[in-house]
Amino acid sequence: CTCGSIVCFDPSLKPMVGYARTATIRAMPPPPGDAAAVRATRARYYEHIAAQPLAWIGRIGRETPVAYLQPYGTVILTPSGAGVKPALLNFVTGRGSLGDVLRVPGLFRRALMWLWHYWGLIGGVAGTVLAIRKRMGWAIFPLLAWVAYVTGVTAVLLIEPRYVFPVMFAFSALAAYARVRAWDWLGAHSRLPAWLPRGGAAA
User: Fold this and answer.
1) Which end of the chain, C or N, has fewer beta carbons within 10 A?
2) Nearest to residue 49, comparing CAs of 20, 17, 13?
């Protein structure tokens, strides 16, 4: 951005979403040369950004799965150099102990966050499939529409775990439906202990 004002390079263009293709512009000291040369240099910057729109599509394809697979908040709870992954890797390769893994700061809180996150994602997908097979597509349409809307908007602009976190309530609701269906199936096939309630069949 600029200091004090934002300059539109071509006011005749319609509003649009910019591509995620970047370049570096020197801010201090002011660029040397006359005004025409400076303007030509700035024009090459914007041409560089617009030259490869497929880079924007590639970024979306790379970053969207990453944003969904990383539970929001687990990175915030991780002090520098205290991740679970390095400790687990050291334990598996024999360079660390199980105690090192258990001593990772916030391990159990993060484990619960990972468990809830993936229960929502996997169960949500399963619940969606089960609901559609039961011809309940319109019943879950608001949830799926919310997921599609948030994903579409954030993927085009900037997709990160914190921005897709609002869709997790929709995944959790769908996962709860999958759990109820699974529980009813187990009860109907006598796969549950006698002391557990069977419940009615899910709609």
Assistant:
1) N
2) 20
Distance, C-alpha 1 to centroid of its chain: 26
In the block, tokens 């570096």 appear at 24
Structure tokens given for 161: 């775990």
Residues of the chain with confidence (pLDDT) below 50 = 1-3, 201, 203
- Position 12, amino acid: S
What DSSP string runs through 61-88?
HHHHHHHHHS-TTTTTT--TT--HHHHH
Cα dist from 73 to 50, 105, 169, whole Å: 34, 14, 15
Core vs surface per residue 39-73: b (16+ CB within 10 A) or e: eeeeeeeeeebeeeeeebeebbeebbeebbebbbb
Task: Reduce the DSSP state of residue 113 to 3 states and report it.
Answer: helix
**b/e code 124-161 from CB counts within 10 Å (16+ = b):** bebbbebbeeeebeeebeebbeebeebbeebbeeebeb
| pLDDT recorded at residue 43 | 81
HSE-CB for 68 with a 13 A CA cutoff:
21
Residue-wise pLDDT for 95-140, tens only, equals: 888 888 788 777 788 888 889 999 999 999 999 999 999 999 899 9
Amino acid symbol at 134: K
